[in-house]
């Protein structure tokens, strides 16, 4: 059995680690969510998060949320940092693309929702 020098072994260990999530910002975010229908869970609450086709350079992002049978049409504003912002539930959302292609959406108050595209 071949042994590796410590730095080589460390490089192999790092390469084998799961990739960290990547925050989606600006046009990467709008392109990813454009025309998508997501099944999400926030805490114990399941919901649907639906986006129309979006221009990648859009500054206002309309969406529909269906929660417990109630449909809400609303919109986010894309901030100068490229994040979604909503007056109703904290200023910004951090949207991260996970290795399994799900989205992790974290509000400014720390509450998070996990979403998978249909």
Can you walk through the features of this model?
The protein is of the alpha+beta class and 118 residues long. It has one domain (22-117): Beta Barrel (Lipocalin). The protein is built from two helices and nine strands. An eight-stranded antiparallel β-barrel has the order 2-3-4-5-6-7-8-9. The longest helix has 11 residues, at 6-16. It is globular. Mean pLDDT is 86; it is low at 7-18.
Provide tags for this entry:
118 residues, alpha+beta, Lipocalin, eight-stranded antiparallel barrel, 2 helices, 16% helix, 43% strand
Summed up:
This protein has 118 residues and is of the alpha+beta class. Helices cover 16% and strands 43% of the residues.
What gross morphology would you assign? globular
What is the straight-line distance between the termini?
A: 46 Å
Class derived from helix and strand content: alpha+beta
H-E string:
HEHEEEEEEEE
Largest sheet: 8 strands, antiparallel, barrel
Percentage of residues assigned to helices: 10-25%
- CATH classification class: Mainly Beta
Strand content: 35-45%
Report the CATH architecture.
Beta Barrel
Number of domains: 1
Q: How many H/I helical runs?
A: 2
- How would you classify the quaternary structure? single chain
Mean pLDDT, all residues: 86
Q: What Rg is obtained from the alpha carbons, in whole angstroms?
A: 18 Å
Strand order of the largest sheet: 2-3-4-5-6-7-8-9
Number of strands: 9
Low-confidence stretches: 7-18
CATH topology: Lipocalin
């Amino acid at each position: 059995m071949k042994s590796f020098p410590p730095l080589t072994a460390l490089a192999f260990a790092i390469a084998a680690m799961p990739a960290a999530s990547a925050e989606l910002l600006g046009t990467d975010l709008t392109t990813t969510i454009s025309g998508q229908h997501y099944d999400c869970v926030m805490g114990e609450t399941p919901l649907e998060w639906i986006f129309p086709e979006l221009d990648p350079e859009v500054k206002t992002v309309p969406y529909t949320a269906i929660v417990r049978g109630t449909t809400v049409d609303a919109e986010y504003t894309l901030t100068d940092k490229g994040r979604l912002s909503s007056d109703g539930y904290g200023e910004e959302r951090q949207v991260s693309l996970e290795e399994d292609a799900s989205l992790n959406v974290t509000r400014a108050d720390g509450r998070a929702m996990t979403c998978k595209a249909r």
